[in-house]
Amino acid sequence: MPEIIPLGWLHTVMGAVALLSGGFTLARFKEILLHTRSGQVYLTTTLLTAGTALAIFQRGEFGPGHALAVMTLLALAVGTLAATVKAFGKWSRQVQAISYSATLLFHSIPAVTDGLLRLPVGNPVLKSIEDPVFRILYLALLILFLVGVSLQLLWIRRNPDRSALH
């Protein structure tokens, strides 16, 4: 695995802050909301993480990490349209929840991948991106996302006025 460049360190730190603030936000509010401080921290650091990912070319070409960054930026845009201009009508809150939660999934995939391929330093847990363990982990992340979004949508249905509160 190549050494981490300074931009990579910024990307990694912003990604870690995003994951932590996203987890905190979901635990506290049951959904990522644009008007909460923790939601704003999450969304800002997610934007920075995706933006810096597009500038990192360790392998010299557009790769899976770049595709996840583009998907993250698209999910942020859709979620923000849903949150600010209610572009999806009565479904805007659900679209916002799904979109913003998808960004957490998109963060988690490279976090798990890079973490297992880089740590512990000098003797990483896994040696290759081709290791079959990754397929199991990615499937587990997808299942966690689907369960989490299902719970959020149930929460939203039971608490229709919640998005107006802090």
Task: Give a short synopsis of this structure.
By secondary structure, the protein is mainly α. It is 70% helix and 0% strand. It is built from five helices and no strands.
Explain what you see.
- The structure is a single chain.
- With 166 residues, the chain is an all-alpha fold.
- It has one domain.
- It is 70% helix and 0% strand.
- The termini are far apart.
- The mean pLDDT is 91.
Shape: globular
Tally of helical runs: 5
Number of domains: 1
Radius of gyration over C-alpha positions, nearest whole angstrom = 17 Å
Structural class designation: mainly alpha
Strand percent estimate: under 5%
Portion in helices: 55-70%
Q: Give start-end ranges of low-pLDDT stretches.
A: none
Average pLDDT, rounded to a whole number, is: 91
Distance between the termini: 43 Å
What's the helix-strand series? HHHHH
Largest sheet: none
Topology, number of strands: 0
Which keywords apply here?
mainly alpha, about 170 residues
